Amino acid sequence: MHLLCTNDDGILAHGLECLVRAASTLGEVTVVAPDREQSATSHSLTLHHPIRPVARGERRYQVDGTPTDCVMLAVEALMPQRPDFVLSGINHGHNMGEDVLYSGTVAAAMEGVTLGIPAIAISFAGGELQADPSLLDDQVPVVAHLLAHLTGLTNIPRDTLLNINLPPLPAAEIKGVRLTRLGRRVYSDSLVRMQDPRGREIYWIGGGSAEWSGGADSDFRAVREGYISVTPLSLDLTHTRMLDDAPSWWLEVP
Protein backbone atom coordinates (compact mmCIF):
# COMPACT_ATOMS: atom_id res chain seq x y z
CA MET A 1 0.00 0.00 0.00
CA HIS A 2 1.25 3.49 -0.89
CA LEU A 3 0.27 6.26 1.51
CA LEU A 4 0.61 10.03 1.21
CA CYS A 5 0.98 11.84 4.55
CA THR A 6 0.50 15.58 4.86
CA ASN A 7 -0.71 18.13 7.43
CA ASP A 8 -1.32 21.83 8.09
CA ASP A 9 1.03 22.24 11.08
CA GLY A 10 4.15 22.02 8.93
CA ILE A 11 6.82 19.50 7.99
CA LEU A 12 8.44 19.62 11.46
CA ALA A 13 5.24 19.06 13.45
CA HIS A 14 5.23 16.35 16.08
CA GLY A 15 1.79 15.17 14.97
CA LEU A 16 3.03 14.49 11.44
CA GLU A 17 5.90 12.43 12.85
CA CYS A 18 3.40 10.35 14.84
CA LEU A 19 1.18 9.86 11.78
CA VAL A 20 4.14 8.65 9.72
CA ARG A 21 5.06 6.16 12.42
CA ALA A 22 1.50 4.80 12.44
CA ALA A 23 1.17 4.78 8.65
CA SER A 24 4.52 3.04 8.16
CA THR A 25 3.02 -0.11 9.69
CA LEU A 26 0.63 -0.28 6.72
CA GLY A 27 2.91 0.33 3.74
CA GLU A 28 5.23 2.75 1.97
CA VAL A 29 4.86 6.36 3.09
CA THR A 30 5.55 9.55 1.15
CA VAL A 31 5.45 12.84 3.07
CA VAL A 32 4.60 16.11 1.31
CA ALA A 33 3.83 18.86 3.82
CA PRO A 34 3.95 22.66 4.12
CA ASP A 35 7.23 24.26 5.15
CA ARG A 36 5.43 26.23 7.89
CA GLU A 37 2.17 26.21 9.80
CA GLN A 38 -0.88 26.60 7.55
CA SER A 39 -3.68 26.22 10.09
CA ALA A 40 -7.13 27.55 9.06
CA THR A 41 -6.14 27.85 5.40
CA SER A 42 -9.11 25.62 4.50
CA HIS A 43 -9.16 24.41 0.87
CA SER A 44 -7.10 27.29 -0.53
CA LEU A 45 -4.72 26.95 -3.46
CA THR A 46 -1.65 29.07 -4.23
CA LEU A 47 -2.44 30.74 -7.55
CA HIS A 48 -0.41 33.95 -7.64
CA HIS A 49 3.13 32.61 -7.35
CA PRO A 50 4.83 29.27 -8.11
CA ILE A 51 5.33 26.68 -5.39
CA ARG A 52 8.61 24.87 -4.86
CA PRO A 53 9.07 21.38 -3.38
CA VAL A 54 12.31 20.83 -1.44
CA ALA A 55 13.48 17.28 -0.74
CA ARG A 56 14.19 16.58 2.93
CA GLY A 57 15.05 12.91 2.52
CA GLU A 58 13.78 9.87 0.68
CA ARG A 59 10.08 10.32 -0.21
CA ARG A 60 9.89 13.42 2.00
CA TYR A 61 9.25 16.95 0.69
CA GLN A 62 8.45 20.35 2.12
CA VAL A 63 6.40 22.80 0.04
CA ASP A 64 6.01 26.57 0.34
CA GLY A 65 2.26 26.30 -0.05
CA THR A 66 -0.99 25.18 1.51
CA PRO A 67 -2.03 21.64 2.49
CA THR A 68 -4.18 21.49 -0.65
CA ASP A 69 -1.15 22.48 -2.74
CA CYS A 70 0.81 19.67 -1.12
CA VAL A 71 -1.70 16.97 -2.03
CA MET A 72 -2.11 18.19 -5.60
CA LEU A 73 1.66 18.46 -6.09
CA ALA A 74 2.30 15.03 -4.56
CA VAL A 75 -0.29 13.24 -6.68
CA GLU A 76 0.39 15.01 -9.97
CA ALA A 77 4.16 15.50 -9.81
CA LEU A 78 6.16 14.06 -6.93
CA MET A 79 4.90 10.50 -6.44
CA PRO A 80 5.75 7.90 -9.11
CA GLN A 81 2.28 6.41 -8.69
CA ARG A 82 -0.98 7.60 -7.18
CA PRO A 83 -1.30 6.82 -3.47
CA ASP A 84 -3.88 4.38 -2.25
CA PHE A 85 -4.80 6.76 0.58
CA VAL A 86 -4.21 10.35 1.62
CA LEU A 87 -3.67 10.71 5.38
CA SER A 88 -3.71 14.21 6.85
CA GLY A 89 -2.59 15.09 10.38
CA ILE A 90 -2.14 14.42 13.14
CA ASN A 91 -3.36 17.96 13.78
CA HIS A 92 -2.31 19.78 16.95
CA GLY A 93 -5.87 20.47 18.09
CA HIS A 94 -9.37 19.19 17.42
CA ASN A 95 -11.27 19.55 14.15
CA MET A 96 -14.90 19.10 15.13
CA GLY A 97 -18.15 20.84 14.26
CA GLU A 98 -17.75 23.93 12.08
CA ASP A 99 -13.97 23.73 12.50
CA VAL A 100 -13.94 21.36 9.50
CA LEU A 101 -14.88 24.31 7.25
CA TYR A 102 -11.68 26.19 8.19
CA SER A 103 -9.30 23.29 8.75
CA GLY A 104 -6.31 22.82 6.48
CA THR A 105 -6.04 19.28 7.85
CA VAL A 106 -9.53 18.38 6.66
CA ALA A 107 -9.03 20.28 3.40
CA ALA A 108 -5.96 18.20 2.52
CA ALA A 109 -8.01 15.02 2.94
CA MET A 110 -10.81 16.64 0.93
CA GLU A 111 -8.38 17.35 -1.91
CA GLY A 112 -7.46 13.67 -1.94
CA VAL A 113 -11.12 12.73 -2.32
CA THR A 114 -11.53 15.38 -5.03
CA LEU A 115 -8.70 13.68 -6.92
CA GLY A 116 -10.41 10.31 -6.54
CA ILE A 117 -8.25 9.00 -3.68
CA PRO A 118 -9.72 7.78 -0.37
CA ALA A 119 -8.67 10.05 2.48
CA ILE A 120 -8.61 10.31 6.26
CA ALA A 121 -8.04 13.41 8.42
CA ILE A 122 -6.79 12.91 11.99
CA SER A 123 -6.68 15.46 14.83
CA PHE A 124 -5.59 15.33 18.47
CA ALA A 125 -8.22 17.06 20.59
CA GLY A 126 -5.75 17.92 23.35
CA GLY A 127 -3.95 20.48 21.26
CA GLU A 128 -0.25 21.19 21.55
CA LEU A 129 -0.13 23.21 24.76
CA GLN A 130 -3.18 22.06 26.70
CA ALA A 131 -2.08 18.45 27.01
CA ASP A 132 1.12 16.45 27.37
CA PRO A 133 2.53 15.79 23.85
CA SER A 134 3.64 12.36 25.03
CA LEU A 135 -0.03 11.35 25.03
CA LEU A 136 0.06 11.47 21.25
CA ASP A 137 3.15 9.25 21.16
CA ASP A 138 1.31 6.80 23.39
CA GLN A 139 -1.60 6.70 20.93
CA VAL A 140 0.48 5.82 17.83
CA PRO A 141 -0.29 2.06 18.10
CA VAL A 142 -4.00 2.90 18.51
CA VAL A 143 -3.90 5.11 15.41
CA ALA A 144 -2.09 2.39 13.46
CA HIS A 145 -4.72 -0.18 14.47
CA LEU A 146 -7.57 2.18 13.53
CA LEU A 147 -5.99 3.05 10.18
CA ALA A 148 -5.51 -0.63 9.39
CA HIS A 149 -9.23 -1.15 9.88
CA LEU A 150 -10.43 1.95 8.03
CA THR A 151 -8.14 1.50 5.01
CA GLY A 152 -9.49 -2.03 4.67
CA LEU A 153 -13.12 -0.92 4.31
CA THR A 154 -14.62 -1.23 0.84
CA ASN A 155 -18.00 0.44 1.34
CA ILE A 156 -16.99 4.07 1.88
CA PRO A 157 -18.63 6.31 -0.79
CA ARG A 158 -16.19 7.86 -3.25
CA ASP A 159 -17.17 11.43 -2.29
CA THR A 160 -16.60 10.85 1.44
CA LEU A 161 -13.62 11.38 3.73
CA LEU A 162 -13.29 10.21 7.32
CA ASN A 163 -12.57 12.82 10.00
CA ILE A 164 -11.00 11.39 13.18
CA ASN A 165 -10.59 13.19 16.50
CA LEU A 166 -8.47 11.58 19.23
CA PRO A 167 -9.21 12.30 22.91
CA PRO A 168 -6.36 13.72 25.06
CA LEU A 169 -5.93 10.55 27.08
CA PRO A 170 -3.35 7.80 27.55
CA ALA A 171 -4.05 4.99 25.10
CA ALA A 172 -5.06 2.63 27.91
CA GLU A 173 -7.83 5.04 28.98
CA ILE A 174 -9.48 5.42 25.57
CA LYS A 175 -12.88 3.74 25.83
CA GLY A 176 -13.31 2.86 22.17
CA VAL A 177 -14.38 4.32 18.83
CA ARG A 178 -17.67 6.02 17.99
CA LEU A 179 -19.14 6.81 14.58
CA THR A 180 -20.36 10.39 14.98
CA ARG A 181 -22.02 13.43 13.46
CA LEU A 182 -20.60 16.95 13.47
CA GLY A 183 -21.48 18.91 16.58
CA ARG A 184 -22.04 22.67 16.67
CA ARG A 185 -19.82 25.26 18.29
CA VAL A 186 -20.07 28.99 18.86
CA TYR A 187 -16.95 31.05 19.60
CA SER A 188 -17.09 34.07 21.90
CA ASP A 189 -14.56 36.91 22.09
CA SER A 190 -12.51 35.49 19.23
CA LEU A 191 -11.65 38.95 17.86
CA VAL A 192 -9.18 40.95 19.96
CA ARG A 193 -8.69 44.67 19.38
CA MET A 194 -5.08 45.82 19.83
CA GLN A 195 -2.65 48.54 18.79
CA ASP A 196 0.54 48.13 16.82
CA PRO A 197 3.80 49.80 18.03
CA ARG A 198 2.81 52.96 16.13
CA GLY A 199 -0.52 53.19 17.95
CA ARG A 200 -2.63 52.12 14.98
CA GLU A 201 -5.66 49.91 15.58
CA ILE A 202 -5.31 46.25 14.62
CA TYR A 203 -7.29 43.09 15.26
CA TRP A 204 -6.13 39.59 16.18
CA ILE A 205 -8.38 36.68 15.19
CA GLY A 206 -8.29 33.65 17.46
CA GLY A 207 -8.55 32.70 21.08
CA GLY A 208 -11.74 33.29 23.00
CA SER A 209 -13.95 30.48 24.23
CA ALA A 210 -16.21 27.94 22.51
CA GLU A 211 -19.56 26.51 23.52
CA TRP A 212 -20.45 23.14 22.05
CA SER A 213 -23.85 21.64 21.39
CA GLY A 214 -25.08 18.48 19.76
CA GLY A 215 -26.72 15.15 20.36
CA ALA A 216 -25.33 12.05 22.02
CA ASP A 217 -23.88 10.94 18.68
CA SER A 218 -21.94 14.18 18.05
CA ASP A 219 -18.18 14.31 17.68
CA PHE A 220 -17.43 16.57 20.64
CA ARG A 221 -19.48 14.40 23.01
CA ALA A 222 -17.58 11.29 21.94
CA VAL A 223 -14.21 12.95 22.57
CA ARG A 224 -15.38 14.51 25.84
CA GLU A 225 -16.48 11.06 27.06
CA GLY A 226 -13.12 9.45 26.20
CA TYR A 227 -13.85 7.94 22.79
CA ILE A 228 -12.21 8.33 19.41
CA SER A 229 -14.64 10.11 17.08
CA VAL A 230 -14.91 9.07 13.43
CA THR A 231 -17.16 11.32 11.34
CA PRO A 232 -17.84 10.68 7.63
CA LEU A 233 -17.84 13.97 5.69
CA SER A 234 -19.28 14.31 2.19
CA LEU A 235 -18.08 16.69 -0.51
CA ASP A 236 -21.72 17.25 -1.51
CA LEU A 237 -22.92 20.24 0.53
CA THR A 238 -26.39 20.17 -1.03
CA HIS A 239 -29.19 20.41 1.57
CA THR A 240 -31.21 17.49 0.22
CA ARG A 241 -34.05 17.83 2.75
CA MET A 242 -34.68 21.37 1.51
CA LEU A 243 -34.80 20.11 -2.08
CA ASP A 244 -37.31 17.46 -1.06
CA ASP A 245 -39.44 20.19 0.53
CA ALA A 246 -39.21 22.52 -2.47
CA PRO A 247 -43.00 22.73 -3.13
CA SER A 248 -43.42 24.54 0.19
CA TRP A 249 -41.00 27.39 -0.55
CA TRP A 250 -40.05 27.49 -4.24
CA LEU A 251 -41.18 30.47 -6.31
CA GLU A 252 -42.10 29.88 -9.93
CA VAL A 253 -41.09 32.72 -12.23
CA PRO A 254 -44.08 33.88 -14.31
Detailed description of the structure:
- By secondary structure, this protein is of the alpha/beta class.
- The protein has one domain: Survival protein SurE-like phosphatase/nucleotidase (Stationary-phase Survival Protein Sure Homolog, Chain: A), CATH 3.40.1210.
- The protein contains eight helices and 13 strands.
- The strands form three sheets. Strands 3-4-2-1-5-6-7-13-8 form a nine-stranded mixed beta sheet.
- Helix 2 runs parallel beside helix 4 (104-114).
- The longest helix is centred in the first third of the chain and has 12 residues, at 67-78.
- The chain is globular.
- 39% of the residues are buried.
- The model has no long low-confidence stretch (mean pLDDT 90).
Furnish the topology, listing elements before pairings.
Layout: E1 2-6, H1 14-23, E2 28-34, E3 53-55, E4 60-63, H2 67-78, E5 85-92, H3 99-102, H4 104-114, E6 119-124, H5 134-138, H6 140-150, E7 160-166, E8 176-179, E9 184-188, E10 191-195, E11 201-205, E12 209-213, H7 219-224, E13 227-234, H8 240-244
Parallel strand pairs: 1-2, 1-5, 2-4, 5-6, 6-7, 8-13
Antiparallel strand pairs: 3-4, 7-13, 9-12, 10-11
User: Using DSSP, what is the number of strands?
Assistant: 13
Number of domains: 1
- How much strand? 25-35%
Largest sheet: 9 strands, mixed
CATH fold group = Stationary-phase Survival Protein Sure Homolog, Chain: A
Looking at the overall shape, the CATH architecture is: 3-Layer(aba) Sandwich
Instruction: State the helix count.
Output: 8
Strand order of the largest sheet: 3-4-2-1-5-6-7-13-8
Give the structural class.
Answer: alpha/beta
The level of helicity is: 25-40%
Provide the succession of SSEs: EHEEEHEHHEHHEEEEEEHEH
Overall 3D geometry? globular
* Average pLDDT for all residues: 90
What is the class in the CATH system? Alpha Beta
**CATH H-level superfamily:** Survival protein SurE-like phosphatase/nucleotidase
Low-confidence segments, given as residue ranges, are: none
